[in-house]
Design goal:
Layout (H helix, E strand, L loop, with lengths): L16 H11 L6 H9 E4 L2 E5 L30
Antiparallel strand pairs: 1-2
């Protein structure tokens, strides 16, 4: 089960990949997705129109290339509740 509260502290920078993965672990929410994060960081827009992608520089700790935290399958038959 996912804990009802979560605190994470990060020192350093890896383009936010470690923070996204920690939020995924702590919240159990698949909205925190390293692939979506990378897509958002590399999309290039010119005057509001998609204009390609930029390449991210190599990250020192390999957070961009390590697999993201796997989430357990969630049954859709019961609503998720919080206390």
């Amino acid at each position: 089960s996912v804990a009802s509260s979560f605190i994470g502290i990060f020192v350093g920078c890896n383009k936010g990949f470690d923070a996204i993965n920690a939020m995924r672990m702590g919240s159990g929410n698949p909205i925190f997705d390293k692939h979506a994060w990378e897509d958002g960081m590399t999309d290039v827009y010119k005057r509001g129109v998609p204009a390609g992608k930029i390449k991210l520089e190599h990250d020192v700790c390999n957070q961009a290339t390590l697999p993201q935290f796997p989430l357990p399958a969630v049954s859709t038959s019961k609503p998720i509740t919080t206390t």
